[in-house]
Amino acid sequence: MLRTRLVTALLLGPLIIAIVFLGEPWLSLLIGVVAFLALVQVLGIVAGIALTAAGLVSANAASVGGVVTTLLTALDPPGLVAATLVAAILLLAIVAFTRADPRAGFQTWAMTTFGIGYIGLLLPAIVLVAHLAPPGGSGNTSVGVFGMGSGAAWALTLVLVVWGYDTGAYATGRLIGRRHMLDHISPSKTIEGLAGGLILATIAAGVGAALIGLEPWHPLIIGPVVGVAAQAGDLAESMLKRAAGRKDSGDLVPGHGGILDRIDSFLFAAPVLAGYALLVAGRVV
Questions:
Q1: What is this structure's pTM?
Q2: Do 13 and 142 share a structural domain?
Q3: Which stretches does DSSP call E strand in 56-153?
């Protein structure tokens, strides 16, 4: 199992890093494909893809034109994402009316709505991170020690911190993990693993801060905060799997389970990092 996980990581890791550096439209295309694969497993694929697309279009608002720009303008407020979510909730409710058992209809409506929101609202935040820019600049503005584009530097920081947390938590938990954290959700998670993950996440955040050009104190906040968010995302998906009586969300990624098992940490970490960049680090989109 460990060997398979390592081989898969070695194959997918460089691809993800390459797409981060290439930027748009490749990043949005990747997120769209990931959303499709994830939504196949949580129902509501059409509504979910529509919601994800709304988020991606909104994140790329500055580079779209034509009818899409007219649509964005007409829906501001409440915004394309909010309007799409409302339409999806209403349509899914109408579909649920067709179930003979009202309780089954309500469960279908609730679970499907949750599924499209879980993926469609949170996943596009990764693209939002990749559009972060210094005040008065853009996502392509050169920043940091290597002069990377700001958006690419922030996106790479997200990847490094999440991977750093996952690696640190997994290795520390395997080596010295003794005290279990939340047995009823994920028996393999330990307090020691949490600590090891946060340490490596903070080190990774230090690398990211150098890439972005942030002051040295930022990693001391970004590492723990985004690391905890990544762990929360993993636990949230574990809770969904336990509720569904499944060990993995699928078997698409060898050694790692389904696509949700690979993106669960990013679903929570990306909005948290974007919020930190906008509210604390003074970045814009």
A1: 0.84
A2: yes
A3: 142-143, 148-149
